[in-house]
Each structure stands twice: as structure tokens, then as C-alpha cells.
Request: fold
Amino acid sequence: MRTHRIILFMAFLVPFLSPLQAQEQQEEPFRYLFSAGEHRFSGFGGPLVQFGMAEDEMAVYSGGGGALLIDQRVFIGAYGMGLASRHIRRDIELGGTSYDRLRTSLGHGGFWLGYIYRPSALVHLGLSTRLGWGELALYDETFDIDNYDYLSQDRIFVLHPQLEAEMNITRWFKVNLGVGYQLVSGVDDFEYSDRPEPVFVEEDYSGPQVSLGFLFGGFGTKQAD
Reply:
């Protein structure tokens, strides 16, 4: 008898369940952060050149980076930069020895994050930040460059936010011009040095910077012939 009541009750519910099922089919489908149907993933990479000041002289940094590009707007990747220009310190005494031709070495690498505004426009703006760790050091440039030992060494942290303008050259190549500020910190802790005062001063390596990037990757969509 109880079974018959359950069957009758289920039959009674069917007319009410049908509209609910139709409504559910019309609702917007679930969205996910990582879904090939919802987002477009591509990538890019290329060389970077940066201009600024170091030790009261014009400085040039060179390097490169690469990133995952999401919906042509947001990118997450990694970079590496190094001081390419020649900077000589002539005021250093270490271990009782005076040096007048010590060359500065600065390199860092880490995360590269950014956002691109209106990427389909021929010229468009963006924001990016390079966030990394590295080393600031001195070495005698008369040594064999492949076997030199650092005479003084500092572990550093670098933060470099910037505003950018980009031009789309082709769907796989664009030029990036950025203006930002490089902040170098951590230079108070120095190794391999017996000087009573720090060898480096962070203000000598922090300041406004201009960067130029040549980026190759998947930008935009393929045009029909």
C-alpha cells in the first residue's frame, strides 16, 4: 500500500518538475577560471633593454622575459635583467688592499606581472611590475671574466612598476615602451667585505627608468586572406 502511495506522489510531482527542468536548461552555464571555452591562452617573450642611472652615471640594463597571456589582457611570467654598462669604482679598500678598478655587477630576476588595456588598438596602454631577487657585487675586471671572484657581494630585492605604451606591428610582434621606477633594497647587508661601512648605497641604483621591449608571441587573431 505504501508503494502505491509513493508512485502516486511521484506522478503528481512530474508536472511541476518539468518547468523547473526547462528553466535550468535556460540558465547560464557554469563558469570556471581555467576553461578553454571561456578564456584564450597564448604567450609571448622577447628581449628587454632598460635605461637609467647607476652610481651617478648613465646605466643600461639588458635581459629578457616571457609570460603566459590570458585573454590578451593579463599576463604572468618571469624575467631576468643585468647591468650591461661598465661602471668602475675607484674608492674601495678591502682587506687592507686598495682597488681603483673594481667593476660593478648587478643582476636580478623573478616574476613579471601585467595588465594590457584595449590590446586590439594599434597603440594601447598597460601596466606591469617586475618583482625579483638578485645580486649586487664588485669584481676586479682585470681577472679572467670566467673565473673571477667577487670581492664584495650583496643580496638585493628589486621592485620595478611601470606604465607602458605598446604598438601592434603584426599579430605576432609588438614594441613596448615603458616608464617606471626601479627600487633596489637590501644593500645594507653585504658579504665578503671587512669595510666598516657598506660598499653599496641603494640610492645609487634606485630611480626612474625607461625600458624598451621587443615582444614576440600570439597577439590578436589570424586575419582571413
Q: What stands out?
A: The domain at 40-217 is CATH 2.40.160.20 (Porin).
